[in-house]
């Protein structure tokens, strides 16, 4: 851990917290005060030499408590209109067109520019808001100009093109191997016929390919291996994307209070994918996926603590910096490790709410953040829906990160378990960033649960390990 970097994070979050506090945006202020406190806690663990660091942590947490009542009493800001949302989708279409334009994918870029123009013009005729009309027409003009500029070379006489002796570019095809380490793709991978592995082990045998094909179907839905061509997945559409299986089966507890499916723009006027990755912002509801939530929390804590992308790298679409971004068109792709390889899971952003408008799935304490709800939805889709019988963190952590799981049974009557050796190993590896740890309880009586402050058969994320000297 870098104590100096964590101190900088704390300063940045504190500045944002004070700013939101002064603007009366109390929900966001609460979120940033918590993040500032967490950053200082990690900085202290990393050996920070800041004076009065504990007092500052307490100050931020006390302000969080003071703002809770203000958050409850403050009325929510009005949501955006349909026409404002159309403008956001048009902007996203143009942004995606720019990306295809820069990569030299002319036909894809023209299609996206054209759809943006159509959406802008259609919406400008529907709305009476003059300011919005001007924005839509300006965006339409920019998109149209670029589309026309790209179309000119394609409309040149055929005789001029023949002299260049350029062979037509074949359409993209899926390769037989999963994605490697390269974050971006310059051009589609060629089709590779099944053959034995070469010296570098880059190709699968025909038998292995058949295994991958057979194991792609999970709970009735096919999840193909994640490949290089999937980095060119299309995410921009004029209309909100609807996944065929987007409305997942609900659990009995969800059904008891379920009202409807909503999209993020129905809940907040400023949805975003991630403000900051934090284990403290994850809120579990009535879905019985405690092991998954614990796995998500410890993965988020690791990314924040060691500044290595673990969770944010599996969500798409991503911007040029490889950071996941909010998609107003409602389509997302999550990369999960399932049945031996990374696989692509496509979802929409429809989420279940109760009659009070509260989410019935896991979510971030910052209601504008989507990463918690969307990653959970992707995993629940694979598992057959929110009516989830439960899993274990070995399976869940591997699905999220690809790390190899190991289970330690901590029973006092076990002859192979050594509490001292196990603690020493976990302590050292945890602080080096070599492991992600969750702990699960077994069956216990109500009295035992109250005594230890634990819930029976429940999974917990291990966020820190400390060693104390006890004087007997």
From TrEMBL:
Q: Which residues form the Calpain catalytic domain?
A: 260-472
Q: Which residues constitute the catalytic centre?
A: 290, 458
Tell me the PROSITE patterns matching this sequence: CALPAIN_CAT
UniProt keyword Nucleus, yes or no: no
Pfam families attached to this UniProt entry: MIT (PF04212), Peptidase_C2 (PF00648)
Q: Which InterPro entries match?
A: Calpain_cysteine_protease, MIT_dom, MIT_dom_sf, PalB/RIM13, Papain-like_cys_pep_sf, Peptidase_C2_calpain_cat
Q: What GO biological process terms does the UniProt entry carry, in alphabetical order? A: proteolysis
CDD domains named in the record: CysPc, MIT_calpain7_1
Q: Cite the entry's keywords alphabetically.
A: Hydrolase, Protease, Thiol protease
Q: Which GO terms label this protein's molecular function in UniProt?
A: calcium-dependent cysteine-type endopeptidase activity
Is 4Fe-4S found in the keyword set? no
Task: Please indicate which superkingdom the organism of origin belongs to.
Answer: Eukaryota
Question: Which protein family is it in?
Answer: Belongs to the peptidase C2 family.
Q: What is this protein called?
A: Calpain catalytic domain-containing protein
Q: Taxonomic lineage per UniProt?
A: Eukaryota, Metazoa, Chordata, Craniata, Vertebrata
């Amino acid at each position: 851990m870098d104590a100096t970097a964590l101190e900088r994070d704390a300063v940045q979050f504190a500045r944002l917290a004070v700013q939101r506090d002064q603007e009366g945006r109390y929900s966001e202020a609460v979120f940033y005060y918590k993040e500032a406190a967490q950053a200082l806690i990690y900085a202290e663990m990393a050996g920070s030499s800041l004076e009065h660091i504990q007092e500052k942590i307490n100050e931020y947490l006390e302000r969080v408590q003071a703002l809770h009542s203000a958050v409850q009493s403050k009325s929510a800001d009005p949501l955006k209109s349909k026409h404002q949302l159309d403008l956001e989708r048009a902007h996203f279409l143009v942004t995606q067109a720019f990306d295809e334009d820069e990569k030299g994918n002319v036909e894809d870029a023209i299609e996206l520019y054209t759809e943006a123009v159509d959406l802008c013009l259609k919406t400008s005729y529907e709305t009476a808001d003059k300011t919005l009309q001007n924005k839509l027409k300006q965006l339409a003009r920019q998109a149209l100009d670029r589309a026309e500029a790209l179309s000119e070379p394609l409309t040149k006489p055929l005789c001029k093109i023949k002299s260049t002796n350029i062979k037509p570019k074949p359409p993209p095809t899926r390769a037989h191997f999963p994605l490697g380490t390269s974050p971006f793709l310059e051009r589609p991978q060629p089709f590779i016929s099944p053959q034995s592995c070469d010296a570098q082990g880059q190709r699968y045998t025909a038998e292995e390919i058949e295994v991958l094909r057979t194991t792609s179907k999970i709970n009735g839905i096919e999840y193909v291996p994640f490949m290089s061509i999937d980095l060119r997945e299309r995410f921009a559409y004029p209309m909100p994307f609807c996944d065929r299986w987007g409305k997942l089966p609900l659990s009995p507890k969800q059904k008891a209070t379920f009202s409807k499916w909503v999209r993020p723009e129905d809940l907040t006027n400023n949805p975003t994918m991630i403000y900051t990755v934090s284990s403290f912002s994850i809120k579990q509801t009535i879905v019985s996926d405690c092991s998954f939530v614990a796995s998500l929390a410890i993965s988020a804590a690791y990314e924040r603590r060691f500044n290595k992308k673990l969770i944010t790298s599996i969500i798409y679409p991503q911007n040029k910096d490889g950071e996941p971004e909010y998609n107003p068109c409602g389509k997302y792709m999550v990369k999960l490790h399932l049945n031996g390889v990374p696989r692509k899971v496509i979802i929409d952003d429809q989420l279940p709410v109760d009659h009070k408008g509260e989410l019935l799935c896991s979510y971030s304490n910052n209601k504008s953040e989507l990463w918690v709800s969307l990653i959970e939805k992707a995993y629940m889709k694979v598992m057959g829906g929110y009516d989830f019988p439960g899993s274990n963190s070995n399976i869940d952590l591997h699905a999220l990160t690809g790390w190899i799981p190991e289970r330690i049974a901590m029973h006092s009557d076990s002859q192979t378990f050594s509490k001292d050796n196990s603690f020493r190993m976990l302590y050292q590896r945890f602080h080096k960033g070599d492991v992600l740890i969750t702990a699960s309880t077994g069956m216990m009586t109500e009295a035992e649960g109250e005594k230890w402050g634990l819930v029976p058969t429940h999974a917990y994320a291990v966020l820190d390990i400390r060693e104390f000297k006890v004087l007997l």
